[in-house]
Amino acid sequence: MRQWPWPGIDSAFPRNLDMINNPHPLKSLDGLLCALVVAPGVYARNRFFEFFEQPALRRVRRRARIVRGIIRQLVGSSGPRGQIVGEQIQTDGRVLIHYIVPELNFSRTTALSSLEAILVRYASARALHQAPNPEDRERIEQALGGLSAGLPRPSLDAVVDKSLTDR
């Protein structure tokens, strides 16, 4: 890790300039996706601004927002609770999830990657105080293990992010 280049007060605080200059500072974008869904405050944009200027990382951040939006609809954080009524695995590995919110006469079908579908099931179960599938948890932990050394890693045992339950 290199030191901040300007002398004076700021030079006492090390900054990871390698992360800014390296186009792929992560070993796994899936790990970042999991972190942004399960605990979005860990990689806040204000603290990791340069991190999210990279196009690939912006796409991961956008995917995480979409997944978190689906989870909020399923747990009913801002109104009636939704329910998954269909799940179909496609030949390309994507998962089609069909869910409804009966009180609103609302239905949605969305295509997610297998990891995104796992995150939807895991985070929804946690937010609803249900036991998540241990296989889903194992897959998420595996993805989080792909985060580079030195980067923060969220704990899956921590309290569920309030933005999924209170809105």
Fold and architecture overview:
With 167 residues, the protein is α+β, with helices and mostly antiparallel strands. It has one domain (15-165). Helix content is 39%, strand content 13%. It contains six helices and three strands. Strands 1-2-3 form a three-stranded antiparallel beta sheet. Strand 2 and strand 3 form a beta hairpin. It is globular. The chain starts with 16 loop residues before the first helix and ends with a helix. Residues 1-24 have low confidence and may be disordered.
Low-confidence stretches: 1-24
- Percent helix among the residues? 25-40%
Largest sheet: 3 strands, antiparallel
> What average pLDDT do the residues reach?
79
SSE pattern: HHHEEEHHH
Query: What sort of overall outline do the alpha carbons produce when their principal axes are compared?
Result: globular
Strand fraction equals 5-15%
Q: Provide the spatial order of strands within the biggest beta sheet.
A: 1-2-3
Can you count the helices?
A: 6
The assigned structural class equals: alpha+beta
Whole-number radius of gyration? 18 Å
The overall number of domains is: 1
What is the terminal-to-terminal distance? 39 Å
Report the strand count.
3
